[in-house]
C-alpha cells in the first residue's frame, strides 16, 4: 500500500501557480513615438482628422476604444465612418494634439492658458481620465485660470462643477469678477435691462459663490452695487453680512454651501489685514435746525 501511495504522489501534476503582471512602459514609449502629422511607413493609420490647418493620422480602433463619441462617429452609422478624412470643427489643432497624445500614451501637458479648451474637449469626447486631470489642474491653479477671457469658452455645467469644489484655489472676489465677465459674454444684445438679464444667466452659478468669504469692504464696495443693479440677488449680500455679524445660521443646503469657506492653501490665505470701519450717520430733519 505504501508503494502505491508513493507512486500516485509521484505521478500527480505539479501545483499550478498563476500570476498577472503589467508593464505598459514599453507600449507607452512606442505609442509616444507615433507622429500624428507625419506617420512613418507601415504605421497602419486608417483615418485622418482634419482640424484647422492640421492633419492628424490616427487609428479608428484606438480612438473608438477611448471615446464613445469618436467611436460612434468613426465606426458607427455616421457618414464619417466611411471617410478617410474627417473634419472636426469644434476643437483647435493644438487641443486635438493634446487629446490624441493622451489617448495614445495616457500623458498630457497642461498649461493655465489652454487648460479650459482641453477640459472642454475632454468633456465633448467623454475622456474621463483627461477630464479629471484638467479639473485637478484648474483647481490648483484657479487664480491663474479664472481670468475673464480665459474661462469664456467653459460650458456652464463644467463651470458649476469647478466653483462648487471646496478646494478651488482662488479668492472669492477674483472669482466673482471672472464669473461676471463669463456672463456678460453671453448677454448679446439683450433687450431687457442689463442687471436682471445678467442675473438670469448667472442664476445657478451665483448660488455657488461663497459671498461670506469676502471681506466687509468687498461686500460693501463690490457686491452691494451689483445687488442694487439687479445683478446679484440682494439676499446673498444680506446673508453674507449676517455671517460677519454672527447673526443667524444656515437655513438650507445651498445656504450652508455659501457659508462654508474654501480650503485655500497657505499662500492663498495670506492677505493684507485691513481695518474697515463703516460710518453710519442719520440726518436730522430740517425742522430740527430751525
Automatic annotation (TrEMBL):
Pfam families: BTB. Coiled coil: none annotated. SUPFAM superfamilies: POZ domain. Gene3D superfamilies: 1.25.40.420, Potassium Channel Kv1.1, Chain A (3.30.710.10). Residues 45-112 form the BTB domain. It comes from the Eukaryota. This is BTB domain-containing protein.
Amino acid at each position: 500500500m505504501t508503494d502505491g501511495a508513493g507512486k500516485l504522489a509521484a505521478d500527480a501534476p505539479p501545483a499550478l501557480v498563476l500570476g498577472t503582471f503589467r508593464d505598459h512602459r514599453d507600449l507607452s514609449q512606442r505609442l509616444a513615438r507615433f507622429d500624428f502629422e507625419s506617420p512613418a511607413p507601415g504605421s497602419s493609420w486608417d483615418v485622418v482628422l482634419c482640424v484647422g490647418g492640421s492633419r492628424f493620422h490616427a487609428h479608428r480602433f484606438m480612438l473608438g476604444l477611448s471615446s464613445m463619441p469618436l467611436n460612434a462617429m468613426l465606426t458607427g452609422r455616421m457618414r464619417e465612418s466611411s471617410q478617410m478624412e474627417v473634419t472636426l470643427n469644434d476643437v483647435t489643432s493644438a487641443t486635438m494634439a493634446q487629446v490624441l497624445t493622451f489617448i495614445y500614451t495616457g500623458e498630457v501637458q497642461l498649461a493655465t492658458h489652454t487648460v479650459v479648451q482641453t477640459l472642454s474637449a475632454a468633456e465633448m469626447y467623454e475622456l474621463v481620465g483627461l477630464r479629471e486631470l484638467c479639473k485637478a489642474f484648474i483647481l490648483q491653479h484657479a487664480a491663474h485660470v479664472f481670468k475673464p477671457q480665459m474661462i469664456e469658452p467653459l460650458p456652464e455645467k463644467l463651470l458649476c462643477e469647478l466653483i462648487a469644489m471646496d478646494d478651488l484655489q482662488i479668492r472669492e472676489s477674483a472669482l466673482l469678477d471672472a464669473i461676471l465677465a463669463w456672463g456678460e459674454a453671453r448677454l448679446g444684445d439683450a433687450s431687457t435691462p442689463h442687471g436682471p438679464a445678467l442675473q438670469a444667466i448667472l442664476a445657478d452659478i451665483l448660488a455657488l459663490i461663497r459671498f461670506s468669504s469676502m471681506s466687509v469692504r468687498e461686500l460693501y464696495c463690490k457686491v452691494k452695487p451689483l445687488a442694487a443693479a439687479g445683478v446679484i440677488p440682494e439676499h446673498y449680500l444680506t446673508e453674507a453680512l449676517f455671517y460677519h455679524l454672527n447673526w443667524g445660521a444656515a437655513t438650507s443646503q445651498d445656504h450652508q454651501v455659501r457659508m462654508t469657506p474654501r480650503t485655500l492653501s497657505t499662500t492663498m490665505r495670506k492677505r493684507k489685514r485691513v481695518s474697515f470701519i463703516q460710518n453710519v450717520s442719520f440726518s436730522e430733519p430740517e425742522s430740527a435746525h430751525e
